[in-house]
Amino acid sequence: MSEKKLLILNKKQISQKIDRMAYQVWEDNMHEEEIVIAGIADCGFTLAKRIKEVLERISGLKVLLMRISLDKNSSHLKASTDIPVEDCSGKAVVLADDVLNSGRTLAYGMGVFLNIPLTKLRTMVLVDRSHRIFPVSTDYTGLEISTVLREHVDVVLDDEGENDAVYLR
């Protein structure tokens, strides 16, 4: 039995959303010398890489890219990063993920930075489903969509960008 999928963002639309969010990040951080884009593995990190590429093309900002790996099923924070979290000290950080549903993943992602003095911490998602359980909000959102709980949003972002799509099933 095949599941019915509805395309809600195609490759071009995703690219436009990423460009718009990158401009918003730049506008919010024009006076910063360096910012950190921290992407939650896997799709959040791919989104972070894309944002970094656009920011470096349109601005003079120095952008440090960080990958955060989380155990999303744990009842407490279990996270690792590919660069030391201390490298973010005194900088603005943008935490990126693909979909905001309950808010647990973003809350855990923010927990990584709790003991680090940052100039600011912002959040970014490609798709916000608005089913929050945790008190988490986004500063930069590609698309906000109203869904019912039994629906699922699938984000496909590959390294080359050839098969990018967002589906509702």
From TrEMBL:
Domain of life per record: Bacteria
Limits of the Phosphoribosyltransferase domain: 8-158
Alphabetized CDD domains for the sequence: PRTases_typeI
UniProtKB keywords: Glycosyltransferase, Transferase
Pfam families the UniProt entry points to: Pribosyltran
Protein's UniProt name: Phosphoribosyltransferase
GO molecular function: glycosyltransferase activity
Originating species: Hufsiella ginkgonis
SUPFAM superfamilies: PRTase-like
